[in-house]
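Example record for the data management plan.
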Amino acid sequence: MAQKIESDKLLVREVFDIWFRIPEYQRPYVWDNDQVTELLDDVMQAAASNQEGQYFLGSMVLQKKNKTENETSYVEYDLLDGQQRLTTLFLIMAVVRDLTNDKVRIDTCQRSIFQMANHDDNIPERLRIVFDIREQVKDFINEFVKEQNGTSKEAELKLKINNNEEDVSIRNMAKAILTIREYFSSNNIDDFFRFLRSNVLMIYVASEDLDDAFRLFTVMNNRGVKLRNSDIIKADNLGQINETHKRLEWAKKWEETESYFGEDFDAFLSHLRSILVKQKAVASLLKEFENNIYNPQSFDRNTKKYSKLPPLLKKGEDTFKLIDQYKKHYEQLFDNDNNSLYGNFELYNYLHLMLKGFEADFWIAPLLKYYDKFKTVNLLDFVKALDNKFANDWIIGLTPTDRIQNMNAIIQTIDDATHPPNVLSNQSLNIDNSDLIQILEGNIYGKRAARYILLKLDLLYHGHTQKFDLPETISIEHILPQTPKEDSKWRIDFNDMDREYWTNKIGNLVLISRRKNASQGNKDYSEKKEKYFKNNVELFSNSIRIYNQYLAWTLSDLKNNHNEVLSKIKEGFGLL
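Corresponding structural encoding:
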């Protein structure tokens, strides 16, 4: 059953009647002085322009949770989006409380910060916002926000700011408190606070289902520090580890891995998902881990019922160990030149070709799985076979689903194999010779895989005594131009029929290390060599070969080169 999505607008005073939690998978509090001051200025200016008007401050995305404490039920919301703004409002409440002499306002602020315990009425003490992002942050909130006059401890707050050993959230919160205090030293706190409480609006959307709430967050969030699936997976697994020192150890390793992969961290976790599940993902990474890895089920078509299966991976330390293990594999494969293994850079060069040449990366999962099981035994042979298979499926036009299934079949083959030769001889690595040859012999320019084909051809000419490092910008250049000028020598050496047949074939194409320049590309061959090739193609072995080998570019030259490079690329694909 689909979960109900809640949505409403709330005045700030109503926002602080709600219970919030900032879960441990959230990122730190990162607002700096400029952002805090901007919020204060926006509210102050809105109040000055129209004290009776309303001002929209921002939105929140929440996960709704039903809680019970001391036999009393209440609703608490995990904050997925809006943390920076809501935390700043929370700090404003504390500063206003400590700067005012109005007892009613002090009470208002205190109630916005925490609920006092009332043992007679069975009411527990509870903070309005619980900060689970770091344990030290909870201590900071208790000392400097919850405690009356806590924000007045300016000397201690400055020490927090200047201590680089402190958590980043603490340093930024301390700066925010001092910024807010300084702001109100020269601005009217009465007008500001009345307007803030009764005229400033926020909107929220909430769902009980974490995945739905996360999807809402992803759609709505277009600024700030974005939350990722990996943040929630991390928190879920840390919650399974009871020993504090182990939690800290694995949290540190996770952060190191996250820093290593950067924005590609979720993609890395997707590779691990593929290794474990060996099926195409049908849901978010979060749900895939929860439903297909931690709690897999099988469906009986006869009874039409699901039954639980053993987990493919256990939450907690087992998950952290697997991630750490495969991160090390990734480093070994992609961060080393592996020259010591083969006495040359062949393995490095093929992996570099695949990283730079392919438009998709789901070939990485079978590579990681192979390395995990067999390490460097026949590794180069496997990489070449994997490159050929992944390229073949892309070039002949298989759908992404079919290509992913073929990679998953290779992972299954590796799982089943006892020795590397069992993998290399398996049909899962076979390629479609006839279709591939037909495409390579035809017009390849304009095809999505054309750049990869030419990169692979260049690698075959490049050899492996040196690294195959590539420039950031790579373009495909026609030697015989697509549209030569009417008075050019091209029109003499090639008739219209020959140009139509040969222009877009592999024998007439080279790579250049900058964006195409039509005015240069249309020049006659001798002028192009002098003014264009000399300065632009030195990085590409096939281009250098053509420049040195052919003094002119006639139909005969083009045909000879086409036959040569076609034979070379077929050899690279194992088609000869």
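Summary line stored alongside the record: The longest helix spans residues 244-261.
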